[in-house]
Design brief:
The complex is a heterodimer of chains A (499) and B (254).
Chain A: H1 2-6, H2 9-35, H3 47-82, H4 96-116, H5 121-126, H6 134-140, H7 151-189, H8 196-236, H9 239-244, E1 248-249, E2 257-258, H10 261-292, H11 295-310, H12 313-332, H13 351-376, H14 379-387, H15 392-421, H16 424-429, H17 447-455, H18 464-498
Antiparallel strand pairs in A: 1-2
Helix pairs in contact in A: 2-3, 2-7, 3-7, 3-8, 4-7, 8-18, 10-13, 10-15, 11-13, 12-13, 13-15, 14-15, 15-18, 17-18
Chain B: E1 5-16, E2 19-30, E3 34-38, H1 45-52, E4 62-70, E5 73-74, H2 82-88, E6 89-92, H3 103-114, H4 120-133, H5 137-140, H6 153-165, E7 171-175, H7 183-196, E8 201-205, H8 209-215, E9 218-223, E10 226-232, H9 233-238, H10 243-249
Parallel strand pairs in B: 3-8, 3-9, 6-7, 7-8
Antiparallel strand pairs in B: 1-2, 1-4, 4-5, 9-10
Helix pairs in contact in B: 3-4, 3-6, 4-6, 6-7
The chains are: A mainly alpha (499), B alpha/beta (254).
Chain lengths: 499, 254
């Protein structure tokens, strides 16, 4: 009996609901069978559908209410209890939320003490801080408190406990009533004419729709949360400086210059170099694989190329920092000791370092997408060209690539949006200096690296230096979203042409 | 028939991997004549057609044995470049396959890659002549720069025929050119084939025996990779010699 009580009431409730669901399935299925005297061919739907229908009516609405209740109850209780704490009970340097966390800790501690048998439930309910040392009492049952419990906090904790208890009872009552009502409803509507299959299928359809909307709603939620923080930022910092200024100089003592332009320049410059590397190499690889390579080479080379896409970007970042950067310094730096004997580069981090490595990262992305697109060009077009006496290379240049061009442009735009959003390679490879310069051998910085650096370490979410990260993030989001929409539009338009 | 022999095939065998698709086919195809290949699906008529311009070369597992001579020259000789051969032996496919280019560029594609035009005016003239011969000029002359894929199915197929004759081939191979077209477009294409006979040797693969009877002077009946019977179209359809031919044209097999 004790063990049974130890299980959280919610778990018990869920188990009861599941049992009820099984009962509903069996009961209603046999009622359906009984209504036609055991000849299932006289039923509108297969007998199991009547069972499923009852199970869904029993389980889904009640579980839905249960989940909603569990989410809403703490908020309601918190709001009710917070009003009990007078302004005077909040110590200097403390805040309502700190006192509130004390309250919940005392309440949970009392629960634990009752369960451990240190005090009985009646005493816990009527405890007063005047005659008992609550702190010592709770310490005995393993709950450590930072300070003595004030009368206000204890009263609030008592209220918290009682509300939680009532809430729990109400929840059990309401949820089980809903489940029983569902069961009863399904039982009553079940006759031989009842269209159980249509009902179940409509139910499943609405679940599929709910899953699809959840994904979309999450995106909306992300955008909104960034939008609100961005609005907060622009209340603290002039938008003219953010969009039109030319200096990025955050200063945590205030009075910072926070302009996106140097970061945007670094981002676009590095992305451009990355695309200059990835697009020709990726496209040529795709042409070889889809047009010239025989089956064996293709089966071997394509997965190998796609392994590149599975390497975590932090590993690419290490490669940039430890291999490509020093190599470039050897090539362009070091003066007389270097390979070219010039001294144009001072450190391993530079736009070129990050751009080259990011380009390597994007090669499989471009080649894999382009390969699919080139393969989608109908064989009949190639036959038509061969039939006119064109060579293989003429066919590729004049028929296959023009036909695949919109798709390839889409692939390049998708690659560009990945380059713009890429973080780890630029954190390690590009440097941290915000500047607008045309020299690819200099270190520059990007939007993503600045978001990382503004949000790491001790941050105060009320200062423009921190909030600027949200404005940067939103700008980045708009930029890549625009590119993605454009790319998908182009790719889709191209697909419609052939299917 | 006094026309000279254009294509002479001798003991041709075609294999797709282990599959023996064409078995010992010998046939003489005449110049300025329409020759129809008929037979049930999978009988090898399209395969044999594709041997005549070496389109089977693009299929890795196929191999061809025997001789095919065009104007007395063996087209499977190692000195022959299949690319040049295909300029001489044009092909029109089952499904219209215009390139995703303008109508003008579709027709100008062959002349351009073979360098047939010295200048723009020359090319314009070649394109106009090909479109007129393919009986589509009046329908497209005002929109030569519109995409070829925007035409109707029948127009697309005539555009493909114009594209094939723009390279001035000597032989025109047609692989079921009307199977994707409606009766009106089919009638237009058949009329066109009859006109093309004046300049070319036309070989047409068809599933429709009425079509073979309407457009061809010579007919070859293929069955299971064998050339069963070859002769004057009238004779094949009225008094066939082989019982298999008779079964096919009366609808008992195929």
């Amino acid at each position: 009996m004790r063990n049974f009580l130890n299980v959280a009431p919610t778990t018990v409730l869920v188990l009861v609901l599941l049992a009820l669901t099984l009962v509903a399935f069996g009961m209603v299925r046999s009622r359906a069978m009984a209504s036609v005297g055991g000849d299932s061919r006289k039923l509108h739907s297969l007998p199991n559908y009547y069972g499923y229908n009852a199970a869904l009516f029993t389980a889904i609405p009640s579980l839905f209410v249960l989940v909603a209740w569990l989410l809403i109850q703490p908020v309601v209780i918190q709001n009710a209890v917070i009003e009990m704490i007078p302004q005077s009970a909040i110590a200097e340097g403390s805040s309502v939320s700190l006192v509130m966390s004390d309250v919940t800790r005392v309440a949970n501690g009392l629960d634990a003490a009752v369960q451990a048998g240190a005090i009985d439930a009646d005493r816990a309910r009527n405890l007063s801080s005047n005659d008992t040392d609550v702190r010592a009492l709770l310490a005995e049952s393993g709950v450590a408190l930072g300070s003595d419990v004030s009368p206000e906090v204890l009263a609030a904790a008592q209220r918290y406990r009682s509300m939680q208890g009532t809430g729990r009872l109400l929840m059990i009552a309401i949820v089980s009533t809903i489940a029983l009502a569902g069961l009863l409803f399904a039982f009553r509507v079940t006759t031989e004419k009842f269209r159980a299959r249509n009902m179940v299928e409509r139910f499943l359809l609405s679940m599929l729709i709910a899953a699809a909307s959840l994904a979309i709603l999450t995106t909306v939620g992300i955008v909104l949360s960034m939008l609100f923080e961005t609005i907060n930022f622009f209340k603290l910092h002039p938008w003219q400086d953010f969009f039109l200024g030319t200096t990025w100089a955050p200063n945590f003592r205030g009075d910072s210059e926070l302009s996106i332009l140097p970061l945007l320049w670094g981002t676009l410059y590095i992305s451009l170099i990355a695309l200059l590397v990835a697009v020709p190499i990726g496209l040529f690889a795709a042409i070889y694989l889809s047009e010239y390579a025989n089956g064996k080479v293709r089966a071997f080379a394509k997965p190998l190329l796609e392994i590149l896409a599975g390497i975590p970007t932090i590993v690419y970042g290490l490669f940039a920092l430890l291999t490509v950067g020093p190599f470039l310094v050897n090539l362009f730096g070091r003066g007389e000791n270097g390979i070219l004997g010039v001294d144009w580069m001072s450190g391993a981090t530079s736009v070129l370092t990050a751009g080259l490595v990011m380009g390597i990262m994007l090669i499989p992305f471009v080649s894999s997408l382009s390969d699919d697109i080139i393969n989608a060009v109908p064989q009949s077009l190639r036959d038509g060209s061969f039939g006119l006496g064109a060579t293989h290379s003429e066919t590729i240049r004049q028929v296959v690539l023009p036909a695949a061009l919109p798709g390839i442009v889409g692939a390049v735009l998708l690659a560009a949006s990945r380059a713009i959003g890429e973080t780890m390679i630029v954190v390690l490879g590009a440097g941290a200096i915000a500047r607008i310069s045309a020299n690819p051998l200099e270190a520059m910085t990007t939007i993503t690296t600045r978001i990382v650096s503004q949000l790491t370490g001790d941050t105060d979410f009320a200062s423009p230096e921190t909030l600027v990260a949200f404005a940067l993030g939103l700008t980045l989001f708009v930029l890549t979203l625009g590119l993605n929409v454009l790319a998908l539009y182009i790719v889709r338009k191209y697909r419609e042409q052939y299917e | 028939m006094s026309n000279k022999i254009k294509i002479a095939a001798r003991n041709v065998q075609v294999y797709y991997g282990d599959n023996h698709a064409i078995k010992d086919v010998s046939v003489d195809i005449l110049d300025k004549t329409v020759t129809a290949f008929i037979g049930p699906s999978g009988c090898g008529k399209s395969t044999f057609l594709r041997c005549i311009n070496r389109m089977n070369d693009t299929i890795a597992i196929s191999s061809v044995q025997g001789d095919i001579l065009i104007d007395g020259e063996d087209i499977y000789d190692s000195n022959v470049d299949p690319v040049q051969l295909r300029a001489k032996v044009g092909m029109v496919f089952q499904k219209p396959n215009p390139f995703p280019k303008s109508i003008y560029d579709n027709v100008a594609y062959g002349p351009r890659i073979h360098g047939l035009a010295r200048n723009k005016a020359d090319l314009d003239e070649i394109v106009e002549r090909a479109l007129k011969r393919a009986a589509i000029w009046n329908e497209v002359k005002d929109r030569l720069l519109a995409p070829g894929t925007g035409l109707s199915g029948g127009q697309q197929q005539r555009l493909c025929i114009a594209r094939a004759i723009a390279t001035e081939p000597e032989v025109l191979l047609m692989d079921e050119p009307c199977s994707a077209l409606d009766p009106i477009a089919t009638a237009q294409v058949e009329e066109l084939i009859d006109e093309l006979r004046q300049d070319y040797s036309v070989v047409i693969v068809t599933h429709s025996m009425q079509q073979a009877a309407r457009v061809s002077q010579k007919t070859a009946f293929f069955h299971l990779g064998h050339l069963v019977e070859y002769g004057e179209t009238d004779k094949i359809f009225t008094s066939p010699e082989d019982p298999r031919t008779e079964s096919y044209i009366t609808g008992r097999i195929g």
